[in-house]
Amino acid sequence: MKKLFSVFKYTKNYRKETSLNIFFNVLFSIFSVFSITLVIPFLKLIFDSDMGDYQELLANGLPPMEYTAKYASAWGYYQMAALIVVYGKSKVLMWICLTVFVMTFLKNICRYFAMYFLAPIRNGVVKDLRNKMMKKSLELPLSYFSDERKGDTMSRMTTDVIEIEWSIMQTLELIFREPLLILISLATLIVLSPYLTLYVFLLLPVAGLAVALVSRSLKSRSAKGKAVFGQLFNIMEETLGAMKVIKAFTGERFVQKRFENVNAEYNKIAIGLYRRGDLASPMSETLVLGVLMLILFIGGIMVIDSNSSLTAESFIGYFAVASQIVPPIKQITLAYNNIQKGIASEERIEKILHAENPIVNKPDASILGTFNNSIVFNHVSFAYHKGDSGYVLKNINLTIPKGKTVALVGQSGSGKTTMADMIPRFYDTDLGEILIDGIAIKDMDIDSLRKQIGVVTQESILFNDTIEHNITFGLDSYDKEKVIEAAKIANAHEFIMQQPNGYDTNIGDRGGKLSGGQRQRISIARAILKNPPILILDEATSALDTESERLVQDALNNLMKNRTSIVIAHRLSTIVNADEIVVMNQGELIEQGSHKELLEKNGVYRKLYEMQNFK
User: Fold this and answer.
1) How far apart are CA 145 and CA 359, in angstroms?
2) What pLDDT, on the 0 to 100 scale, is given for residue 46?
3) Are residues 32 and 162 in the same domain?
4) Is the CB of residue 78 less than 8 Å from the CB of residue 58?
5) Contact between residue 359 and residue 141 where contact means Cβ atoms under 8 Å apart
6) Residue 435's pLDDT is what?
7) In the chain, which stretches have pLDDT less than 50?
8) Which of 81, 107, 248, 432 could disulfide-link 57, Cβ–Cβ 3.0 to 4.6 Å?
9) Phi/psi of residue 578, nearest 5 degrees
10) 417 and 269 assigned to the same domain
11) What pLDDT does 615 receive?
């Protein structure tokens, strides 16, 4: 039961709206039942044409007061008799009809206001959940996303959140409106005929048990369906991002077949979910209707029996109230099914919200205001997954003095990029530590650390926005003149001014409207504007043609002036002037020194250099 209402916790920021929703649902339930009970005096007025009965009732007066259903009924008939004797049947009939109309009007007004206050809860919870999931996604380390499919994460932030919205709406109705409507109806039935109501109490749980048996597997089936739907999202995301490769390798049929197979699997699960969910409502209605028919038979016998205290008009009113139990039971059935789906979605969402984030600030983290001396790798070892038998980095010892350019070279997979990524704490060391100015970076405030570092990657990561906003990304305020100056240093200003709207030109998804060299120079301009004392260049020119490489390399040379630079390069010709070159192999530092020194050692570096310069 606790798990059933677990989604209710998301409404804690909307207590006022929740309280008002409950209040109007309570009024709705009261007006719903009592507008129907007025059918009893209405029928009595029509069927009973003898005024003498009412005069006799007034003459006898009310019986001694007692808290029983019989007294409540007698009091009601006494008051009606008084009105009939004074005003006549026609006026009283008109008042009853008017009262029914007013109560029905108020019932629907309350229903509207209940939904009115539910709207900000439903949409507000969706907004809050998406905000939380995005915030958590931005906080999680890069290692988390290497293990998770992006499409599945997107599915959780969209379809699963919508399931929570429906689940919350259904939960509010399941907890308050529908049960309250049933309880008020049952209380009214007890007042009208305790004997008949006993059969209702005995038979209704049977209907509830049958519905529960049908619905109990919805949660697991729904969870499986959402996982498969996440695969669909992932295929779509990959396909749209790799369209050029797909077409170049004529992989359209392969991708389409893969998509259709996953889509067929999801279709099969969805059909099963719909069929099982759709079975619950007609089953509950049929079972409840069977109970009502039994009540109709037993009540009819009681009315026919002249010794029974149940009058015809009371029985018709009783049956009218009893029939009102059917809609809320159907709604509870549907709500229960939706809540089961919501629980499955909640578990998927909670997996992200409660994902472990090992890279966090310590309570007493120090602020790195300036970079003054050096970056030191002190016996650093690292594995992407805890417990891995093999480390990606193995006992790395390296000192990078301020203002120097250090190049990391070696074969692919040797650990160059991983080593560079550990400086801004994209990953944390498993053994050893990294120090900046003698302070371990794990003891530093993460934001203050990363503000001292600029990164230019091999793949230019740009956003579907204007050139200006891409250059100024991450800055709360900036000077337009400095943006232009940064673009000029990056050799980007000239081609920017040739764009249709200059710096206000939108560059499309991932900068698709620009060439590779142009995108890279925008990335360099972004790093120049940030003006960081520490610079990481990860294969910044390897994907460019000769002319673009020259322009980008000139921009990089401008960028590296008076900065501490860590350069990852496959093209050794681009780093021959580095102050120190570090040669990596299978996670180990095997050689280091200047270009000239390493050539003289006649080791791994010389072989790599000669291979690239072989003619």
Assistant:
1) 14
2) 55
3) yes
4) yes
5) yes
6) 93
7) 1, 615
8) 81
9) -65, 150
10) no
11) 45
DSSP 570: S
Give the pair of three-digit tokens for residue 337.
Answer: 């099914």
Distance of CA 83 to the CA centre of its chain: 60
- Structural tokens at position 147: 């293990």
Q: What is the pTM of this model?
A: 0.67
Using CB atoms within 10 Å of the CB of residue 584, give its burial: 0 to 12 exposed, 13 to 18 middle, 19+ buried. buried
Same domain (yes/no): 407, 348: no
Token pair in block for residue 124: 């507000």
Number of domains the chain contains: 2
CB atoms near residue 387 (< 10 Å): 5
pLDDT tens for each residue of 367-422:
888 888 999 999 999 887 665 557 888 999 999 998 888 989 888 888 888 898 88
Residue 590 token pair: 């095997």
CATH code at 498?
3.40.50.300
Residues 336 and 413 in one domain: no
Residues with Cβ < 8 Å from 342, sequence gap 6 or more?
A: 7, 163, 164, 166, 167, 168, 170, 171
- Cα 4 to Cα 171: distance, rounded to the nearest angstrom: 8
Q: Which amino acid is at 246?
A: I
Please give the residue range of the domain that contains residue 584: 402-424+449-612
Eight-class DSSP state of 368: -
The pLDDT of residue 299: 76
